[in-house]
TrEMBL record:
Keywords: Cytoplasm, Translation regulation. This is Ribosome hibernation promoting factor. It comes from Pseudodonghicola xiamenensis. The gene is PSrp1. CDD domains: RaiA (cd00552). Its main location: cytoplasm. It is found in: Cytoplasm.
Length: 191
């Protein structure tokens, strides 16, 4: 597994990097045979250290965890514990999906844009209906089953996930509803 361990405006020593690699490897390999890579970023938020970890699994799933503490090692240990709990929670599902899937998840490229927020007063009408694009990025859309998409959304802690439905070969959306349930949008194909 490849590791990318960095700090945002803080120095990360060799001892911390070794600790992160050993602990994260032990936590992840219990639940996944071939994790691809792990990105761990340390930062400072006032008096606390924040640790954010993202692990890409060979099944195409991405698991994310974030924790903070007054000590940098404690922040990582809490983050690693959250990751372990998340992976343990989905262990059975991960194994079931991995057995069915002989190839890694196929990814389709797409453009992703960030639009400027509208600042309007009560009586002001917008000058144009065209939004202002402030950033453009490349993103990947995975080809998954609906169950895998829900699991991916929950592992990533995301409110919404766009995916290509393997059974219908069309774009679908799963999202977390305000009532706590999961919504699924499956567009009709044109006749």
């Amino acid at each position: 597994m490849r590791y990318q361990i960095s700090g945002r405006q803080i120095d990360i020593g060799a001892a911390l990097q070794t600790h992160v690699e050993e602990q994260l490897s032990a936590a992840i390999t219990k639940y996944s045979d071939n994790p691809i890579d792990a990105i761990v970023i340390f930062s400072r938020d006032a008096y606390e250290f924040v640790c954010e970890a993202t692990v890409h699994l060979s099944t195409g799933l991405t698991a994310k965890a974030k924790a903070s503490a007054t000590e940098i090692y404690a922040a990582f240990d809490a983050c690693c514990e959250k990751m372990d709990k998340q992976m343990r929670r989905y262990k059975r599902r991960l194994k079931d999906h991995h057995k069915d899937r002989s190839e890694p998840v196929e990814l389709m490229g797409a453009a992703s844009y960030i639009l400027a927020a509208e600042e309007q007063t009560e009586d002001a009408e917008p000058e144009t209906l065209q939004p202002i694009i402030i950033a453009e990025m490349e993103t990947k859309i995975p080809s998954l089953s609906v169950g895998e998409a829900v699991m991916q959304m929950e592992l990533a802690g995301a409110p919404v996930l766009i995916f290509r439905n393997e059974s219908k070969d069309g774009l679908n959306v799963v999202y977390r509803r305000d009532d706590g349930n999961i919504g699924w949008i499956d567009p009709q194909t044109g006749n």
